[in-house]
Amino acid sequence: MSTPNVPGAPRRGNFPPPPPKPARSPGAPGARTPGLLDRFRRSPSRGGPSRGGTPGTRREERRRRRRRGPLFLIAAVVAVGLIIWGIAALAGAGKPKAAVESTAYAKGDCFADFDAAATSGNKVDCAEAHSAQLVGVENAPADEAYPGRDALEQRASQLCKTSDITLPDDTSHLKQRSAYPSQDGWQGGDRRMDCYVVTTDGNTLTASLLH
């Protein structure tokens, strides 16, 4: 018994399979050239999102720029520091200071930041700013007996009066300072007496007081 064909119902039974559809030739209407559309899709458009690299590449470039920023800043700071150091070195080149032992002081020497009680001083050119100048020196004979402190103080003070010096009109900021050996120093061979002119205003002298 045969089953009537119902429109829309699935067919059942031993029906022969439908014949295969004929393959379209490459030149037939509606045929697609193999690979052409694929190549088009793989080729990035000139204004498309592929311009400038992928988003990951752009992020990496931004990170590299951020890393370079601090390096440039450090290099600039170092360069400025070197320039400032060079300027300071040049400015100080004309003002040399030499630490000299007090026993090596010579008449006419000028000193910056002078301390009469120190065993050494910063010797500078008298044309540079200074606070003291050694204007008188006397050496007692090696065979002279120790005369006492008062006698040495008077002899040292007399050196300033006998020295050929030129003082400014205003001498209110100038003081006389004397240096002479103690009894122990005298016994040790120190026979030197000195007289200094010292300013109380700091390093304000800029010329020698001696002729």
TrEMBL record:
Ordered alphabetically, the record's keywords are: Membrane, Transmembrane, Transmembrane helix
Domain Septum formation-related residues, every copy: 92-162
- Ranges annotated as biased composition (Low complexity): 24-35
Protein name in the entry: Septum formation-related domain-containing protein
**Annotated region Disordered: where?**
1-64
> In which organism is this protein found?
Sinomonas cyclohexanicum
Entry-linked Pfam families: Septum_form (PF13845)
Question: Membrane-crossing residues?
Answer: 71-93
Q: Determine the domain of life of the protein's source.
A: Bacteria
Instruction: Kindly indicate whether the keyword Transmembrane belongs to this entry.
Output: yes
Q: InterPro entries under this entry?
A: Septum_form (IPR026004)
